[in-house]
Amino acid sequence: MHLEAVERLHVQYANKITHLEADILQMDLPADYADLVVSTFGLKTFDTDQQSILANQIARILKPAGSFL
User: Fold this and answer.
1) Which of 1, 3, 33, 46 lies at a 20 to 30 A Cα distance from 17?
2) Which whole number is the average pLDDT over 47-54?
3) Is 64 inside any structural domain?
4) Domain tally for the chain?
């Protein structure tokens, strides 16, 4: 769905957008890697420990002034 939206709505920026589908609980992206993180799964279904990992991972991989959706 995201790739279709990029093609349809953001085609002029498509070469600047990288789409990664990954398990946030086991992700090893470098710190300050992403301008934007989108989570489509986890907030309602993760237990407290998993939610903590999710929050720490998002804080770690987002660049300063990055956004989370």
Assistant:
1) 46
2) 92
3) yes
4) 1
**Which among 32, 4, 1, 6 is positioned nearest to 18, based on CA atoms?**
6
Asked, for residue 6, whether it belongs to a domain, the answer is no
DSSP state letters, 1-64:
-HHHHHHHH-GGGGGG-------TTS--PPTT-EEEE--SSSTTTS-HHHHHHHHHHHHHHEEE
Domain that holds residue 40: 20-68
pTM: 0.74
Provide the phi-psi class of 62: left if phi over 0, else alpha when psi is between -120 and 50, else beta.
beta
Between the two ends of the chain, the Cα-to-Cα distance in Å is 15
Higher pLDDT residue, 9 or 41? 41
30 belongs to a structural domain? yes
Residue range 25-33: mean pLDDT, rounded: 92
